[in-house]
Design brief:
The chain is α/β, with parallel strands linked by helices. The protein contains 55 helices and 26 strands. Strand 5 and strand 6 (211-217) form a beta hairpin. Helix 11 runs parallel beside helix 14 (478-493) and helix 22 packs across helix 23 (629-640). The chain starts with 5 loop residues before the first strand and ends with a helix.
Length: 1550
């Protein structure tokens, strides 16, 4: 059967295509169905092992003869197992050997659950009903069922409980019967090998990756579970997690409002993605587990590693097997389910199993044998978390674990206690209810690490436990359970340093709370490893602020080189803040970024997925995708022409200050370091497209202007090498390029605003960092028009252009009148000299580029005029005239001058000179000059024979065209005409593309027109001329229908239209013998056998004229002059088709032919033919109309629109374009000699002999430098200072913008108040009038500017409130002084007690005054109107206050708005007497990192309605009310005041 083709499927599934499987590809042809099935499975396994790239090419390989879907080298032998099969077998064996499942083998109903109506509803002690026990549920027949019942049901119950009477009622004496039957889990539970594992594919979630799952016993090893997850589930790939977040909390009664849900989802996703964290729940689709699943689904994405796909967020469900709904569907026959389709649900039934959450990626089902019980997995989960959190030295994974609690029952408190006992930090999300609020209350009122509470707080804590859980307990067990859980809570408080309270309704940074908990857990330890781990966590979260405050403390000393790994990771991950922070810890970039470490940086970067563009760039430029310094140099030279690594040697045992770290250090080999390390870092950042890091390196490095220009140059070259299909990447690169271009221009503009001369020096300076290139050269090579158009660059170019000449118009006058150089007419700069001498003025004038350009322009125009005269008048083919010699010599000097200018052009490399100098126009100009010389040489060689005279004239004519076009180069010096040249260049490029579109319609119309008018013609090149010639001119209106349509009148015979400049061919004449071949070129014709010619006529047609030829076929009235012309394709019916006539250089006149007539001849064609010809003519008219509509109207208007777009585009940047052109014009004439062609040959000969002398006998003189090291250092300091000023200005502008946004927000809040409380407008105005009664009418009208609707403007209200508060503060201060004097006079014990109270009030007043001394006005406004700060969410009542004085009005002036606000506050605070304590739990002190309480400000204190008023003012107002009230009111208010004071003290102490 060898060689037989088997047409089969690679797998029984219908989604695979049919393939050809040959025996020569790894096996013989099938002989049986079993063998065929085996081959199909083998083929499927082999194809499964293919990578994604190989699978992609399989379809292409299938369509190529001789190739199969799978490469031959990938097809294994039949005896060899595939990797896919090996992995499956290894997975199966590992599961079978290490994991078990528990089933109940003895059904005994639970006596406490026998109150059911039917026997089928009885539940065993294990929690499962009878029919769901193992063996009964999967029995296939009655015999098997009876056999299972024999072993499952005890003998005492077998008569009452069996499969036949399931629908009967339980016997009445069932309880007494059960008392005689014992059930223990040791006897009932049977452990077997695990058969429940595989993958879950959730129905309606097919687009997600299937979740892996395993069922194991609660006694199975946690180590084996982690080994399964690592080696078989590959959960550690592609990146090891840095954190494990365990989330516990409420289940069926748990709910989050929109604000809390958003806070939780955002924080959890941010924490998970930034650390590649594992998240652990119970995996059910209810409560907190569902909330975590929804959060993960919002931020879930995938990582692609070759042919493997992994989740970015790993959500692991560790839950009880017995509490999973529809768990029977997950069981398999022992080989696992890959996958099992599982239907989840959102319906939750009380007391019954819950469905699985489809957003989990892994499930670990813990089987303890019991069913319908959710507590079976807590112990295994705790062991799992402990194993994960243990250090690697202790056998763990060394992954930090954090426990997050949201709401929760009593089990949440127990889990928190267990985690805290194992030093696992806990984050309590207060405000979510139950367990979370209980722990938060205990934490807020515990004042020591021993967990001690005051008696009143203990009572309150017990009340909270009773309120949360007492409703589910029996009355006789309430006190006992309260005490148990109170004890557990207090045990948690013994580890108070590991607890972190996160108020869900006030803050939005859950990820920071998790990081804080991790850092707090290690705060007591102070070893280097601990600090390094903390720094690693802070780096993972990118929280440089926390690292600066808590890790990089002043008392911490870091060993040398201990931060290098962290710094390397921060650079690779582009954590700029961390890089800056680490560099502040005495870490030098020069010592860190050595040659070896830079190589490691490139090698690690090339392994990342975001380095594909760099690999492609290196492959295209260096033919290698691996890193080496030679490849890097070649790559950078291709991007910016010139590049140096600047490597130097330095000893490694010396630090940056020159001190040795240790006296015992042995001398090491010199380490290779970089002179400019920040340059290398910036180059790496640019190549990796790390813009933030590139800007940081630019800011920290030297020469910011030149570095920014170089960065823009590199980005521009990279954008050109990006493939056109990657438009997004190219746009990104161009955005980075524009950013650096504007940075360079902004900094040099800042320098120019400070000192103009130094800014020009910076533009002209040769950079030591960038291979001695100036910023102007780099910008010009990269076409950086933004930088070149800056004021400093333009001044530098203009100074070079004028070279000390102060006035431009004086140059033109002096050129025509040179004697003015000896007069004061021409003003020249002294350039350092005390006085300008005449000789210096002459040299300055004639060496200035502007003078050279003026001389060049005048002489070139004269040359063009002379060449025109030579071409039109003086050209002689047989001799060389004097004018021709002058023109050719002039052309030769042009060539020499072009070559000299190219060699001296200021580009860094010769390739750069070619690219920058010789564009397309320069190349055309050079070739034009060379062709002129070539034509002259040919003329000299063939001058005597005169063979190529016409060809030489043609070449000279083309030269003349190019010479005239070269005049436009002189227009570059004009700011109006210069940009127009760029427009013409761009329009010409678009016109070339447009012609490709026009030629399609032109050819289509031309072919159809020719076919309809002329029918079939013989093959010749003339057909293409006819097709394109007439349609092209018809676009411009040259229709010529009269000539084209005469075929209809002549009965289909083509009309002979004698034309000059044509040759006669294919002439058809019936009067001529078909075999007659006549060649009338330089030959004689006599006695031809043609009846139309007289035999006596002898005509010599060579160089003669034909007249009075006696031919009856020619009409005497037609006079055709063929002198110096050629006639082709004359269609005459009287001429034979075989006749070829060439009448070159002859004249034919008075030819008489009867067959030719100017008038139409009688039509002898049939009516059918005439009808067809007329129809063709009509079709030609129709086609011509459509052709003209498309060509003239559509396409020409499209071309006009394109040109208009180009004009607008260029006009917007005309100034930049002209300055860019002026740079090249200035550099060109700056390097030209003072003598202009043709006189420049003298200077060129001098330079040539001088060069030969230097190379042979003379010593080479050393060249000086423009700026020495001292000058360069000075310029660099100036440049760096102005860069810092620019960055400060940008930061200030950003701040001003933020303040303007804040003011806008203030106005929006007042508008919101205005719209919401329009009904209370009159009451508010009444209050306003009452409060302003103490002020004068003038002040009121000035400070309270009312709107048209009598509503005060926001600014007016704020300023009025300030004024009123200042007045009240003065009154309070005066009264305080009076009280102090009264206390001094009185000596009673009561006065002394009152004195202590006043001291406390004075301390509060001083604190308030210090807080009010902030200079920022907008902050004061924010504090007074209670605008929430970014990241802090305050209660609604704190943002609805109109102004502070609105709250402090007298009771009799209370308005409806105030009453509404106070009532809202009362309802929101609760109905118990401990509302303030509740408020303390929900809103503790302002959240800050590492558990350190922040400074409590007056605007964030939620202690009452008088929040916006200073504290001492609130106290004095309360005392006044107490004095004016009755005795009962006095006692009640004193009680409220004491509670307020207590909470204030607690807030201050926190």
């Amino acid at each position: 059967m060898a060689g037989i083709v088997m047409d089969t499927k690679i797998h029984p599934s219908e989604k695979y295509d049919r393939v050809k499987f040959r025996s020569d590809q790894g096996g013989a042809g099938p002989s049986t169905l079993t063998e065929r099935k085996y081959q199909q499975d083998r083929y499927y396994e082999i194809q499964t092992d293919l990578t994604l790239e190989e699978a992609r090419y399989s379809e292409m390989r299938k369509k190529i003869p001789g190739l199969g879907r799978i490469p031959k080298d990938r097809i294994d032998r039949q005896s060899k197992e595939s990797d896919f099969h090996k992995r499956n077998q290894a997975h199966l064996c590992f599961v079978k050997q290490n994991f078990h499942e528990i089933e109940c083998s003895k059904f005994v109903p639970d006596p406490e659950k026998i109150g059911v109506k039917k026997i089928r509803d009885l539940k065993c002690h294990c929690g499962e009903i009878f029919t769901e026990h193992v063996g009964i549920s999967n029995a296939r027949n009655f015999a098997e069922r009876e056999l299972v019942e024999t072993f499952l049901v005890p003998e005492e119950l077998r008569s009452h409980i069996n499969y036949g009477n399931l629908f009967n009622a339980p016997p009445e004496n069932l309880a007494s019967i059960l008392s005689q039957v014992t059930w223990t889990k040791e006897d009932a539970f049977r452990k077997t090998s695990c058969s429940t594992f595989g993958k879950i594919c959730f129905v309606n979630y097919e687009n997600s990756k299937p979740a892996k799952y395993i069922r194991l016993s609660h006694n199975d090893s946690v180590d084996r579970c982690l080994e399964l997850m690592d080696k078989h589930w590959k959960i550690m790939e592609p990146k090891r997690p840095s954190l494990c977040i365990s989330v516990i909390g409420g289940a069926k009664s748990f709910k989050l409002d929109n604000k809390m849900r958003e806070t939780f989802n955002t924080g959890l996703i941010k924490a998970g993605k930034s650390t590649n964290a594992w998240m652990i729940t119970t995996g059910s689709n209810v409560g907190v587990m569902k909330a975590v699943g929804n959060a993960v689904s919002e931020g879930q994405s995938f990582l692609w590693d070759n042919d493997r796909i992994t989740h970015t967020l790993r959500l692991i469900g560790i839950g009880p097997w017995g509490y999973v709904k529809d768990r029977k569907n997950l069981e398999s026959d022992g080989n696992g389910c890959f996958p099992v389709h599982f239907q989840t649900s959102n319906i939750i039934q009380h007391g019954k199993p819950v469905p699985l959450n489809p957003n989990h990626t892994h499930f670990v089902f813990v089987d303890d044998g019991f069913r319908n019980n959710y507590k079976g997995a807590s112990k295994f989960r705790a062991l799992f978390e402990q194993k994960v959190s243990k250090p690697t030295q202790a056998g763990g994974l060394g992954i930090p674990v954090v426990l997050v609690i949201l709401e929760g029952g009593t089990d949440a408190i127990n889990d928190a206690m267990v985690s805290l006992n194992h030093n696992i930090p806990v984050v309590v999300c207060s405000g979510t209810g139950r367990a979370a609020d209980i722990l938060a209350y205990a934490y807020s009122h515990t004042r020591s690490s021993k967990g001690v509470l005051k008696s009143k707080h203990e009572i309150k804590l017990r009340d909270k436990i009773n309120e949360a859980y007492g409703g589910r307990w029996k009355e006789n067990e309430i006190d006992k359970n309260i005490e148990i859980h109170f004890t557990n809570v207090m045990k948690c408080m013994e580890h108070r340093n590991l607890i972190n309270i996160f108020p869900m309704n006030k803050h939005e940074d859950l990820d920071i709370a998790i990081l804080t908990a991790l850092l707090n857990s290690k705060a007591a330890e102070d070893s280097f490893e601990i600090r390094k781990n903390q720094l690693q966590l802070a780096l993972t979260w990118n929280r440089a602020d926390i690292a600066q405050e808590e890790i990089f403390r002043e008392d911490v000393l870091w060993p040398p080189r201990s931060l290098d790994d962290i710094l390397m990771e921060a650079i690779i991950e582009e954590k700029v803040e961390f890089v800056a922070l680490i560099l502040q810890q005495n870490v030098g970039m020069k010592e860190f970024l050595s040659k070896e470490r830079l190589q490691q940086l490139y090698q690690k970067s090339l392994l990342r997925a975001d380095a594909d563009h760099l690999k492609k760039l290196m492959s295209s430029k260096t033919r290698r995708s691996t890193f080496s310094y030679d490849n890097l140099k070649r790559l950078m030279e291709s991007l910016m022409y010139k590049y140096d690594h600047d490597i130097e040697e330095r000893k490694t045992n010396d630090n940056i200050t020159g001190r040795k770290y240790s006296l015992d250090l042995k001398p090491e080999k010199p380490q290779l370091l970089f002179k400019h390390p920040y340059k290398q870092l910036m180059v790496w950042s640019i190549l990796m497209l790390r813009q933030k890091m590139a800007k940081f390196a630019w800011q920290m490095g030297s020469e910011p202007i030149t570095s920014a220009v170089a960065a823009a140059r590199i980005y521009g070259s990279m954008a050109k090498n990006v493939h056109r299909n990657e438009s997004a990447l190219k746009e990104k690169v161009l955005i980075f390029k524009d950013e650096f271009e504007h940075l360079a221009r902004s900094v040099i503009d800042e320098c120019h605003a400070k000192q103009k001369e130094k800014a020009m020096m910076l533009a002209e300076r040769k950079s030591p960092s960038w291979s001695e290139m100036t910023s102007l050269q780099i910008a010009a090579s990269g076409k950086n028009m933004v930088y070149l158009s800056s004021v400093a660059c333009r001044n530098s170019i203009d100074a070079t252009w004028r070279r000390g000449i102060l006035s431009r118009w004086q140059v033109l006058v002096t050129v025509f009148f040179p004697f003015l150089l000896f007069t004061p007419f021409l003003n020249v700069d002294a350039m350092g000299e005390k006085k300008v001498r005449t000789f210096q003025k002459i040299l300055t004038f004639y060496t200035a580029p502007i003078t050279k350009f003026t001389h060049y322009s005048i002489l070139y125009i004269f040359f063009v005029a002379l060449f025109t005269y030579f071409l039109l008048v003086d050209y002689q083919p047989n001799e060389i005239t004097t004018i021709e010699r002058i023109c050719i010599f002039w052309i030769f000097t042009f060539i020499v001058d072009e070559i000299y200018t190219l060699l001296t052009f200021p580009s860094p490399t010769f390739g750069g000179k070619i690219r920058d100098w010789y564009g397309m126009l320069k190349c055309i100009d050079l070739f034009n000059l060379l062709f002129a010389l070539l034509a002259f040489v040919i003329q000299v060689i063939t001058m005597h024979t005169n063979e190529n005279a016409i060809n030489v004239r043609i070449v000279f004519s083309i030269n003349c065209i190019i010479f005239y076009i070269r005049i436009m180069k002189l227009y570059t010096a004009n700011s109006s005409l210069g940009p127009k040249l760029e427009m013409i260049k761009m329009m010409f490029a678009e016109l070339t593309t447009f012609l490709l579109v026009v030629i399609v319609f032109l050819a289509a119309y031309g072919v159809s027109r020719h076919s309809l008018l002329y029918g079939q013609t013989e093959a010749s090149w003339k057909i293409f001329t006819d097709i394109l010639f007439h349609p092209y001119w018809q676009l411009y209106g040259e229709l010529k229908f009269e000539e084209s349509m005469k075929t209809a009148d002549n009965a289909g015979s083509p009309v002979l239209t004698p034309t000059t400049t044509s040759s006669i061919s294919d002439t058809k004449c019936p009067c001529w013998i078909s075999s007659l071949q006549m060649n009338l070129t330089n030959s004689s014709q006599s006695d031809q056998g043609c009846p139309c010619w007289y035999s006596s006529v002898q005509n010599r047609l060579t160089s003669s004229s034909l007249s009075d030829i006696g031919c009856l076929c020619w009409n005497s009235s037609i006079q055709i002059n063929f002198n110096n012309s050629s006639i082709f394709d004359i269609n005459c019916p009287c001429w034979n088709s075989s006749v070829r006539m060439n009448l070159i250089n002859s004249s034919i006149t008075d030819i008489e032919c009867l067959c030719w007539n100017a008038l139409p001849q009688k039509n002898t064609m049939s009516p059918q033919i005439l009808h067809v010809e007329n129809l063709n003519i009509v079709l030609v008219y129709i086609l011509c109309a459509g052709y003209l509509i498309i060509g003239t109207i559509l396409l020409f208007n499209l071309l006009i629109a394109i040109f208009n777009h180009i004009f607008t585009k260029v006009e917007e940047k005309s100034n930049e374009i002209w300055k860019f052109q002026m740079y090249f014009l200035t550099m060109e004439f700056d390097n030209k000699t003072a003598l202009i062609p043709p006189l420049s040959i003298i200077h060129h000969l001098y330079l040539f002999f001088k060069l030969i002398a230097r190379k042979t006998c003379c010593k080479k003189s050393s060249k000086g430098v423009q700026f020495t090291e001292r000058h360069l250092e000075y310029l660099q300091l100036f440049e760096t200072e102005e860069m810092a000023n620019y960055l400060r200005h940008k930061k200030s502008e950003h701040k001003d913008s933020a303040e303007s946004k804040l003011q806008k927000r203030v106005e929006e809040l007042f508008n919101l108040v205005e719209e919401e409380f329009t009904a209370d407008q009159e009451d508010v105005l009444t209050l306003l009038n009452t409060k302003t009664a103490n002020l004068t009418r003038e002040n009121t009208s000035e400070r309270l500017m009312l709107k048209s609707n009598r509503w005060p403007k926001p600014k007016a209200v704020i300023e009025f409130a300030k004024k009123l508060e200042e007045k009240e503060a003065m009154e309070v201060a005066t009264e305080t002084l009076k009280d102090e004097e009264k206390i001094k006079r009185a000596g009673t014990k009561k006065d002394r007690k009152y004195k202590r109270k006043l001291k406390e009030e004075k301390k509060i007043y001083v604190t308030d005054q210090e807080n009010e001394e902030e200079p920022v006005i907008e902050t004061d406004i924010e504090a007074r109107i209670h605008i929430p700060e970014p990241g802090i969410t305050q209660p609604l009542r704190h943002s609805r206050n109109l102004s502070p004085w609105t709250i402090n009005r007298k009771p009799d002036n209370r308005t409806l708005y105030t009453h509404r606000r106070v009532s809202l506050q009362r309802h929101s605070s609760g109905d118990s007497s401990d509302s303030e304590d509740n408020e303390q739990v929900k809103y503790p002190v302002q959240y800050k990192t590492l558990g350190i309480p922040a400074e409590t400000s007056s605007e964030s204190s939620p202690s009452g309605s008088d929040t916006g008023v200073p504290r001492i003012t609130r106290r004095r107002l309360s005392l006044r009310r107490m004095e004016s009230s009755t005795e009962d009111e006095l006692r009640s208010r004193a009680k409220l005041f004491q509670r307020f004071r207590r909470n204030r003290q607690l807030s201050d102490s926190d």
